């Protein structure tokens, strides 16, 4: 290794490089079905929810339109511009109207420092999304897994 290159490496080790903040989950991760008073949903219909929408803790999810399930959690160390969260939804195989099978959906979500809680949820709003089987939801920051929960979507 040349002296110039070695000098650069040594300088970086001594001075350091500003690190991206790593967020951490604080407290328990809530999981289950987000409760709503509405029972009969039509395709494409969503109900606006509040930030503090109650969650009934369960891993069993009814395979029907309107079922919304997932995680709610608190993160510490969030700073605007840091590495975003990646929300990974592993499905039992959702086939969209174009005939394509989706074994996973991935959403990149910027950190919102002022948000008290963060939510990762899936809501069945279209008939083709309602697929019984194992659904796994995972939250990552970069390659670090922050939270994970597996749900069983069951037909009535």
TrEMBL record:
The keyword Signal applies. Keywords: ATP-binding, Helicase, Hydrolase, Nucleotide-binding, Signal. This is Helicase subunit of the DNA excision repair complex. Residues 23-153 form the DUF3859 domain. The keyword Hydrolase applies. Residues 1-21 form the signal peptide. InterPro entries: DUF3859 (IPR024331). It comes from the Bacteria. GO terms for molecular function: helicase activity. Coiled coil: none annotated. It comes from Stutzerimonas stutzeri (strain A1501). Pfam families: DUF3859.
């Amino acid at each position: 290794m040349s002296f110039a290159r070695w000098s650069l490496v040594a300088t970086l080790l001594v001075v350091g490089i500003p690190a991206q903040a790593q967020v951490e989950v604080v407290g328990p991760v809530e999981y289950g079905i987000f409760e709503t008073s509405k029972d009969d949903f039509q395709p494409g219909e969503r109900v606006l929810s509040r930030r503090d929408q109650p969650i009934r803790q369960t891993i069993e999810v009814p395979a029907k339109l309107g079922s919304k399930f997932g995680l709610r959690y608190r993160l510490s160390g969030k700073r605007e511009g840091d590495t975003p969260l990646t929300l990974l939804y592993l499905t039992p195989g959702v086939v969209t109207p174009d005939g394509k099978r989706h074994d996973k959906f991935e959403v990149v979500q910027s950190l919102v420092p002022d948000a008290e809680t963060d939510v990762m949820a899936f809501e069945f709003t279209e008939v083709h999304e309602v697929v019984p089987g194992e659904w796994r939801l995972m939250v990552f920051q970069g390659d670090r897994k922050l939270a994970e929960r597996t749900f069983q979507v069951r037909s009535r």
